[in-house]
Amino acid sequence: MNFVWRLSIPGVIAQISSIIMQYIDAAMVGSLGANSSASIGLVASSIWVISSLSHALCIGFTVQVAHAVGAGEQKKAKKILIQSIYVCIMFSVFLAGLSALLCKKLPVWLGGAPEILSDASNYFLIFGLSAPFFILVTLMTGMLQCSGNMKLPAVLNACLCFLDIIFNSVFIFVFKLGVTGAAIGSACSALVVAAIIVFYTLLKSEYLNLRGFKDFSLNLNVVAKALKIGMPIAVESSAFTGALVVVAKMVAPLGSVALSANSFATTAEALCYMPGYGIQEAAITLVGQSAGARRKDLTRSFSFITVISGMLVMTLAGVLMYFICPYVFNFLTPDNEIRALSIKVLRIELFAEPMYAAAIVASGALRGKGDTLVPGILSLISLWGVRIVLSILLIKPFGLTGIWISMTVELCFRGLVMLLRLFCFKSKKN
Length: 430
Description:
The protein is an all-alpha fold. The protein is built from 15 helices and no strands.
């Protein structure tokens, strides 16, 4: 248990740091008015599509590194690292180009009001163009964590927040760039941290450094295995973020207040679930290394411990957020109407935090074993068969509240099916 927490705590810190970065952006932009907040809220789910696809690809490689580390195959781990850099950079450049093509049309398609279209377009474009920086941070963070180094990624993610404050202050308020300045500030922060973490991983990492390593050829077998692992995760992530895009399109006609409240409530709730993702990273590392060492007893034990830990942490976070969320929204926005609606919908969803934790960490344990296809299908069914269907049924009578009721039901359902997959069904990888 102590070993699990030694790996989990740095990951939790890293995830919380990334959420603080979102709080900073939301608060700084929120001070500019409801339209500025709404412009970010409109395209936020589309930005998550980019992030989730990048993360899925990175997982395809980091799981292989975890297996190699568990089996004591250091050279193989380094070879996988090289392949991951090639593929992830190419993919991120593709995402950047796609973002440039879609940035003008996307806010219109999502149903944004005319007064927020320009800011929304610029925000999405800049984040899309900075995809190579963000994917390198994600990739190298995962590689270091799977090699057992959890502390440095946590420190660098904290630095990301600090840099974001500095750059945002300069671009939003000094250069008067508003929403565009927030995106530029985040991109600059990612660039600096990407440079540092790439330098450390390739030259200073105890296990993964490439000093003296000579085989830099492309290995299609490693790439194919990464795609096999990562593709179901990409489908799962796309189902999730695609559902968020559809929800954003549903919310947009409700007006700027509802759109802003949905965005702020989502940002506030992230402080509850991001610790779960930190524990998920520990689950991927521990279960992956145990699977690589062919220790079924450890694989099951670490799966159980990490899931229980995640549920406890996120339950406590949910209880705390229930009482402090009025103060959180006071920090994020000066608009009383937005605050009231944000509090109302968030407090509904917080009851789902224990099962949301189960879904997050169980998914990580399954990924550590290389079991990604069935969990991806289960997420697809949950998100589109439960959340979207319920949202369509409930948005007309209940407005934004109906959307968040649907989310609560779906998160509980997803947590249940992920627990059943992890502990009650045997697969070839178990």
